[in-house]
Amino acid sequence: MRSIGVGLLVLSMLPRLALAEDDLVKKTADAAYSAARVIKYGIDNELPNKQDQTGAKFLMKSIEDCLAGLAALKAKSPDMKLELNGENPMTLDQIRDKFCKPAQDIVKPLLGAQVDAVTWPAAASGKNAAKLKAATLAWWKAHNQDVASAHRVENAEVVAAVVTGDWISGSKNHLGETTRWDVRAWVAVTNAKLRKEDATMVYDCSMVTKEERHVKPTLPFHAAVIGPPFKMKLSKVKK
Asked: SS in 3 state form for 57-104?
């Protein structure tokens, strides 16, 4: 018998595990610890900002990893036990039922509520708004497959875009001169799977010019500054 320390978890198992299984044990133990924190300390402690979809998705992914890992470990080593410091050893089923499933029951509806709460923003009303929106759509239709697939949204199509303001200075040099102009926009993409859920992934992005001295705020856009997308109801998107 041997023990492996992972965070606050100590794992004991018999017989000796192969290296690949050790990796699965560590991944599952880390995920179980995330789930245990939700139960022990509460969702308010683990996710103070209830609108934080990124944090909620991270927690949900950990919980899913916990459940999948426990099932895989049980298939290979049914007698394996996990034990928290100072507590009696727990079977894989006990870990699932005490931590992972209850945590899933807490986080999953929270994610659903976050998605329901997202509303499509109002469009800018300036004289350039129509041209900026058209240029945003043109850029995204040319690049959305690469962008969306990087976030695991395969076979994506652009649903809509909304420009929320006019040109703003996005970057300046040491002389205070603007070296890049930005336009803020939301862009919604979806695919067949998301459509069935009445869902779309939205990018809150900056459409930008080249970055150089004496640059002018002119179209077409050179690139987009993009962060991770968030989910919202497809039926709430205004085209």
From this structure: HHHHHHHHHHHHHHHHHHHHCCCCEEEECCCCCEEHHHHHHHHHHHHH
Read off the pLDDT of residues 37-92 as tens digits, 9 standing for 90 and up: 999 899 999 999 888 898 999 999 999 999 999 999 999 888 988 765 556 788 99
CB atoms within 10 A of CB 40: 12
As beta bridge partners, residue 162 has 186
Q: How far apart are CA 181 and CA 134, in angstroms?
A: 17
Beta strand 223-225 with 178-190 is unpaired
Q: State whether residue 215 is helix, strand or coil.
A: coil
What residue spans define the domains of the chain?
Answer: 2-117, 129-236
Cis, peptide link before residue 109, omega less than 30° from 0: no
Instruction: Kindly list the distances between the CA atom of residue 31 and the CA atoms of 26, 101, 167, in Å, as whole numbers in the listed order.
Output: 9, 12, 44
Q: How far apart are CA 11 and CA 5, in angstroms?
A: 6
Residues in the chain, total: 239
pTM of the entire structure?
Answer: 0.74
Mean of the per-residue pLDDT values of the chain: 88
Q: Is 219 helix (H, G, I), strand (E, B) or coil?
A: coil
Helix axes 19-41, 53-76, angle to 10 degrees: 130
pLDDT tens digit sequence for 140-159: 999 999 999 888 899 999 99
What's the rounded Cα separation, in Å, for the pair 166 and 135? Answer: 13
Structural contact between residues 213 and 177, judged by C-beta atoms closer than 8 angstroms:
yes
Q: Could you tell me if 217 and 209 are in contact, meaning their C-beta atoms sit under 8 angstroms apart?
A: yes
